[in-house]
Amino acid sequence: MTQNDDRPADLILRNANVITVDEGLPRAAALAIRAGRLVAVGSESDASAFAGPQTKVVDLGGRTIIPGLIDNHTHALIAGAFLTGIGVQLAGVSSVEEIVTRVAERAKTTPPGEWIMTTAMPRVALEEGRMPNRWDLDRATVDHPVFVAQSGRNIIVNSLALGMAGIDRDTPDPTGIPDGAEGRIVRDENGEPTGHLIAGGGDVGKAQWWKLMGKPPRLFGFPHLGFDDAVRAIKLQMLEFNSVGITSFRDLGATEEEIDAYAHVASTGTATCRTEVTIGLPANYLTKDEIAPTLDRYERLHGLVIDDWMRIAGVKVIIQSDGWQSVSADKAQYIVLEANKRGWDLAFHAGSGDTDEVNSLLVEILELANKERDITTRRFSWEHGLGLFDPDLIRRIADLGVIISCQPTLSSAAAARTVSMGAEMDKLGLVKPGAVHKSEGFQRVIEEWGLPIKSWSDAGITVTLGSDWPASRPTIDNPLAQLDFACTQISSVGLLQPEEVVPLDSALRMATINGAYSMRVEDQIGSLAVGKLADLVVLDTDPYEVEAEGLSSVRVLATMVDGNVVFQAPNFELDM
Questions:
Q1: Tens digits of residue pLDDT in 146-193
Q2: Is 502 helix (H, G, I), strand (E, B) or coil?
Q3: What's the CA gap between 420 and 404, in Å, rounded?
Q4: Which of 298, 327, 429, 544 is 20 to 30 A distant from 100 in Cα terms?
Q5: What CA–CA distance (Å, rounded) separates 222 from 321?
Q6: Collapsing DSSP states into helix, strand and coil, what is residue 241?
Q7: SS3 for 445-498, per residue?
């Protein structure tokens, strides 16, 4: 298939195995690219018709091309912040002692009194079979407040940070009454806080620290970066994404200031990924009366699109975390109705684990919203999809046109922590007692981390794949990790739900064109077709030529965005 305009192409990729994810032409042998768009997708002769004196022609030697991958759920700017060196990177840690060592090393070069922050702890089992606590972090430093991002809204801090927040043995646990977040301040057998602040407990601490810093609350994360640091973080994280074949991503829960930084990157020609940004509504820090004025303030960003590089998607809301209420049912309904009234799309973190009650509540609220203003043709998204097993809820979600955005690498890694550290997690209250898992053993793992991808897809739901980066991530050694899980259901602790395996065709669509649909740009990216943007990935192996279990062996050789090479593996040259 070719474009009618016969002006010469800038680049032709020939002798290739092109997997287009385009139902009209599933496979091709060559591509021609001009001004960042595909002008030919088809045979060698289709592409060569666009050759001119200045056209660069690259023979791929039969290597495979797929559309650029789309990560459906990241906290990209926060992840990128740690690439700039502002905090301690915990990727790859496997023990409490390793965490202590890394924090202690950072303390040597950090002025006393300044915060030491970490990336999210990997969702893996630690060698000691427990989480670090305040006394562990005190061994690293007593001269700096330390903030360890444990998971979601759960954090671990040292004694100095606890003191700065005014949290001691007499501080009550947040109860969520009347409309705030509930949680736990974990205590030892003597009643002393251990440094673990769970869900709303973490909110209590962060509210006080932000007040001391003169900073406003934010939905997710802790640091507030300056503009220049935020711009640098975005650029670095985009390059990290490119190395594993990601050409577009969604950032879930950014602040208004961070959106300004994204807009700068998008408008100055320095982006190497396309971005959809969702505003994080810090509803757990707001009263019900403050919700509508906050949504009104966001109106300056509503519908913002910067060329083909960035768009504002809508608003993210956390309803519940691991059984701990973030907002009351009444407040959740008010948020959804007010946002829908203003025409915002919404992304929901409903719950984690087998949480039928909160999932049922959210479906009922969405059905009510749909009666007031149609949401079925919008792009509402149910983030993570954890606990969504009930066939009736799945059917109703399908009827509403809500997208399910799931993260296989997160489920795979976190399954091991549940198996090895389930008792420790229960002791800490990471999961609210009695609110989530109803089973023990391996069934508990499925209830907490299972992803019934086939059931969702068979019901007619648009399913997308991603990572929840930095909580989990694909790697250069396994860039197709999301597809690997979807096609095998093999996690870090073995086979989860074999009946929920999907074929590679479906998994690849979930990682590409479905992601584009969720971002409202399916006419621009997500498949390789004439007229679309030239975002693509060169692989060393055809994923259809390996067993499903072998997808983890496929590597990215090069990534192109807008027809430009943004990543090349060592010993491979595409921009020759």
A1: 999 887 788 999 999 999 999 999 999 998 877 778 899 999 999 999
A2: coil
A3: 28
A4: 429
A5: 17
A6: helix
A7: HHHHHCCCHHHHHHCCCCEEECCCECCCCCECCECCHHHHHHHHCEECCEECCH
